[in-house]
Amino acid sequence: MEDMKVYLTEKEMPRQWYNVQADLPKPLPPPLHPGTLKPLGPQDLAPIFPMGLIEQEVSQQRWIDIPEDVISIYKLWRPTPLCRAKRLEVALKTPARIYYKNEGVSAAGSHKPNTAVAQAYYNKKEGVKRLSTETGAGQWGSALAFGCNVFGLECKVYMVKVSYQQKPYRRMMMETWGASVTPSPSDQTDAGRMILAKDPNSPGSLGIAISEAVNDAVKREDTRYSLGSVLNHVILHQTVVGLETKAQLKKIGVEPDVLIGCVGGGSNFSGFCFPFFPEKKQGKKVRFVAVEPTACPTLTKGLYRYDFGDTAQMAPIVKMYTLGHTFVPPGIHAGGLRYHGDAPLLCLLYDEGFVEAVAYPQNPVFEAAMLFARTEGTIPAPETAHAIRAAIDEAIKCREKKEEKVIVFNFSGHGHFDLAAYDMFLSKKLEDYEYPEEKIKEALKDLPKV
Ligand SMILES: Cc1ncc(COP(=O)(O)O)c(C=O)c1O
Predict the structure, then answer these.
(1) Which end of the chain is more exposed for a tag (fewer CB within 10 A), N or C?
(2) Could you give the CA distance from residue 161 to residue 226 in angstroms, rounded to a whole number?
(3) How far is the CA of 443 from the centre of ligand 1 (A)?
(4) Is 203 close to ligand 1, i.e. is its CB under 6 Å away?
């Protein structure tokens, strides 16, 4: 009988991250200073990030060594299993083979610690004492709280207010690892006070929380800022996921036809797919499918323009698919997918036609999550359920066309702290938000003129 899981030994773990910048079909448009609109130099980023990460942000080197101290922490949960979703295949009556890379087995329950641990390491190495960050669903905040804890750093998390209210257990988890958590917008930063003055009932957004966390870091000498997605170095760290997946598929002699991941800022999707990019660029027929919510349809409905990374216009301006930095998406339960932009690296490859994108409303996403939970057991995070929806739809297409394709998706995290959303779905109270066309049109008027 065939094994249902493919494991790597710890010795077979990747020792280097893969940097897709070395293989891009054209150079990445440079990030711009939010004040001067001129290209950013390393010195401009120094008050926010440590030099080790700034170097990775701009590096064109294809392979970058993973430090031994990071590997030894990765070994707490890595290598993660590649699982065959056989019971899901049977339920779908599909001839397709479905595999998923289970990143939900980390301490924080998602892929996020892959970069949190690396970022905490590089900050610690340069003498930083405290990290500030934002979190949407609480997944990133808990990952960074964990990362800071293992390297003995203080951690300050600005958590999007609607998630803070919906997900008290994530806050408790962060506090268990020693972090301090504040609902955003807050009155603790200039950026937060500015937002509250305009809208005292603001539910918050990732864009706002980023402004607060950046504001916090630039005001304190002992503090740097840490971002859980979007940036090149974050995606670099996440390639450990795709590199392991590649080695696992090779071990069982399987070639993927389609790779699927959900997209918030783009880190789990990119980390999962990019290690397969060199072959794809050379003509190998493997599809990369990015999945997003219709409530925040960055790739499918956004524009490829320079925009601010945050609401208060403090973070660098980058070229990306964007819905406008003032866009505040509806409070959907996949909090981690409510960001107005996406990673510039992913956006470039999407614009060049290497990546496809699809968008789904919440209810079909939760239907997919239910089917997965009832066949494969694990309850997925609402973000992850977007990837599952797309994988199921691909498998259904295979059934209709009688095709035996190999579908592999990134199971970015479990949903054990998202049960309130499941409760809403089960009691038929989950709202489907249509594409918020008017709000997006308004927000796109605020793009910077560069
Ligand atoms: C489980 C999970 N998956 C996916 C995401 C989306 O982020 P990214 O696109 O950076 O992977 C998040 C963000 O919080 C998450 O918690």
Answers:
(1) N
(2) 19
(3) 23
(4) no
Ligand 1 in contact with 139 (CB < 6 A)? Answer: yes
**135 — phi, psi (to 5°)?**
-145, 145
Do 308 and 31 meet the contact criterion of CB atoms below 8 Å apart? no
pTM above 0.90, yes or no: yes
With tokens 């999707």, the residue in question is 269
Measured in Å, residue 419 CA sits from the centre of ligand 1 at: 17
Both structure tokens of 43: 């010195």
Report the residue among 102, 134, 292, 337 best suited for mutation to probe ligand 1: largest number of ligand atoms under 8 A from its CB: 337
**What are the pLDDT digits (tens) for 76-112?**
999 999 999 999 999 999 999 999 999 999 999 999 9
Closest to 263 (Cα-Cα) out of 166, 365, 346, 370: 346
pLDDT at 440 over 80: yes
**pLDDT for position 190:** 95
Give the total residue count for the chain. Answer: 450
Distance from residue 117's CA to the centre of ligand 1 (Å):
16
Cβ within 8 Å of residue 420, ≥6 positions away: 166, 167, 333
What's residue 205's pLDDT?
82
